[in-house]
């Protein structure tokens, strides 16, 4: 198939920052793109060939959009899977496949999948509701502390809570959930896997994540992770296995815990470009976004090695500010060598909203880490 | 001034591949852009915020476009300078300035500028017409061989010809021209200079250019040039001097000859992002396009050092093919590590038309050079 400067059309469900960064690659290759998003202010309204406004969870909207394109992908998991199944049945190529997406969308299914395939993961129990969970706690089947996770629609720390007493369960949504054993861990790691339609499969180096203690959002993503080669190899091997077992096509971000005993446990996966791979735009030979495009179009995958050390700092809205956004001190960070801000294009800020990210690259990791801290302490996302 | 996710508007005259690569940076920073180009199929029709179709050489069209924006730049020199002067007089910031552009647009003025400022350049004479040139040859004032250059509107080898006998002058345009002494040289080099509104000034490493013997278009751009540090330092110092003397703001690509005696002579300059800097997207800490944006908005300039060796191969239309474009064997080059094609988005190919470029990056220059040759011998721009 001829994708370049041709009539071929790639559809993307979701028009947020991940879609925007994908468009940067489709533009480079001059691949035609159609994007569907509910907001007419979505970051993807420009740079795609056609933008459609509509509900990603509505069968008819997704189905009709999908019928216009040759290959369909998504940058957000919360899409109508039944429409994807129907489109696939009618010959539209959908990657990642709706079958894979279904396994991943529900964290209960996801955990069962790991158990079934002997992929190491924290022990867990599934519950259809909070009362069922409470009953099990009372019967001694779940012990404090544990991690409550909503089975569906959790992201960026939403839908996850550490539960230490019964009162911690108050106010949680009355939905399907899991209770996971709390594992003491040294590091949160992630490995992005790219797997093409024909099964070519590459892993990116292991990254290490540091979370903001309050917002539960990633604060630094550090590539390569400062871990032993042995642990890194184990993490990459497990991520590879997870991608293969899911028969996944495209990018799969595999988030993992490194336990105190250097065991690797899979936490969860995201079947798309991921925050933990943003560093790759500046640091890697091939960015995660380019490799997603290559994978779903069954083109050869690009080199996932890094040219230099990379650290990513999320730019989230500062507490106490809501309204038209201003990036305070952005000039100051632009003055530091190897610092690249990415502004997603959301016009309104609010506390902890992901507004952009900054990549710091350097030949030397220690230097990069120092600069990352300076960046974090300098730039502030406020309102005008 | 607040440029990011704000009402600020950057105008770009010209909507070709250089504009397209600039838009990649404005998108990253979420800076609003308006683009003017005569073709409604220009590569920039998407990814800018507003596209206007119109004649870049028409006073009224350029003036009215310029009135809509806060800062105006261009990606092509052939624009109406009088309109730029009028806009500047009325408070629109125009970078590079119309004054600088005027000095550069006419190669006769450009050469006189070098002489006036003691910038080394090949000896030359200016002529208002071909008959005047012929009369001077007959009078012994110009001797064969020499290089004829059209004073205006030459690019990519058009408007330049080596003249060895009187018959070589046949068919040349009846326009102002210069006759330049033919200098035996070892290398054609280029240095890109970025200079901001406040005068911060950085040079990129020296690149080495290899030309296609027939088409007179650059075939490989190699960064860093394989020359001695001494020559490289001299070339960068001269380029710096040229930019300062022009009081240039934005990017200035300074093309130079390295003579057999390791002298550096300035050939010509381009006041914009340049083909010789495309390698910077993948190889440099800050691409030439990002630094152009930083310079004209008076933001701090980014690091111009390279992360890895970079080589750029132009993708030009193959001889014997005209029509809807096809990039033959593009999959094969995508399979080589460190190879990134850029497809400009022109739908029609014709012999020697610039359709895209390929960047090869590698830790090792010799390896990069080998891969570049493989790339050049593999991919072919043909028609369907």
Describe this structure in words.
The structure is a homodimer of 384-residue chains. Chain A folds into three domains: 9-94, Rossmann fold, CATH 3.40.50; 123-181, Dna Ligase, domain 1 (2-Layer Sandwich); 185-383, D-amino Acid Aminotransferase, Chain A, domain 1, CATH 3.30.470.20. Helices cover 27% and strands 30% of the residues of chain A. Chain A has eleven helices and 21 strands. Chain A has helices at residues 17-28, 59-66, 81-89, 98-105, 107-116, 130-138, 229-245, 280-283, 288-296, 330-334, 365-378, and strands at 9-13, 32-37, 50-53, 71-74, 93-94, 124-127, 146-150, 160-163, 177-181, 185-195, 201-203, 207-211, 218-223, 250-259, 264-270, 309-316, 323-328, 339-343, 348-349, 354-362, 380-383. In chain A, α1 (17-28) packs across α9. The radius of gyration of chain A is 21 Å and the shape is globular. The termini of chain A are far apart. The relative contact order of chain A is 0.11. At the A-B interface, α1, β17, α10 and β18 of A face α1, β17, α10 and β18 of B.
Structural topology:
Two copies of one chain form a homodimer.
Chain A: E1 9-13, H1 17-28, E2 32-37, E3 50-53, H2 59-66, E4 71-74, H3 81-89, E5 93-94, H4 98-105, H5 107-116, E6 124-127, H6 130-138, E7 146-150, E8 160-163, E9 177-181, E10 185-195, E11 201-203, E12 207-211, E13 218-223, H7 229-245, E14 250-259, E15 264-270, H8 280-283, H9 288-296, E16 309-316, E17 323-328, H10 330-334, E18 339-343, E19 348-349, E20 354-362, H11 365-378, E21 380-383
Helix pairs in contact in A: 1-9, 2-3, 3-4, 4-5
